[in-house]
């Protein structure tokens, strides 16, 4: 959240006005909904990454600590959700969600 903050200093010499941007950051809290599911082969899996905090520059999912290619026909990532259509046996694993504020701060949910 970025707001413009205007400071005015009025004294006997006159008025001085300074304008600058103020960025308010809130610590990230990342939760992965649907943490434990039993899905049958051929069904659809949906994982939702819930993020509280500001600002978030990017979000990504991993499976077994490896980035997920969510650009195929079977796997999609959209608006903090990971969709796996027609689950296969190879989809079994540990999924995580990562929210990135900037290059120095990342939060995760398992």
Automatic annotation (TrEMBL):
Q: Which is one Pfam family of this protein? A: Ig_3
* Protein name per its UniProtKB record: Ig-like domain-containing protein
UniProt cross-references to SMART domains, sorted A to Z: IGc2
Q: Which SUPFAM superfamilies match?
A: Immunoglobulin
| Residues in Ig-like domain copies | 28-107
Q: Which domain of life is it from?
A: Eukaryota
């Amino acid at each position: 959240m970025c707001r413009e903050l205007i400071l005015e200093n009025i004294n006997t010499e006159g008025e001085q006005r300074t304008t600058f941007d103020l960025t308010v950051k809130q610590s990230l809290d990342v939760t992965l909904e649907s943490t434990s599911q039993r899905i049958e082969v051929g069904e659809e899996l949906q994982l939702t990454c819930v993020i509280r905090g500001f600002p978030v520059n990017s979000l990504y999912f991993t499976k077994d600590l490896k980035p997920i290619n969510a650009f195929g026909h079977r796997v999609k990532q959209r608006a903090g959700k990971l969709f796996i259509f027609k689950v296969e046996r190879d989809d079994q694993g540990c999924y995580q969600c990562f929210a990135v504020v900037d290059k120095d701060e990342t939060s995760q949910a398992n």
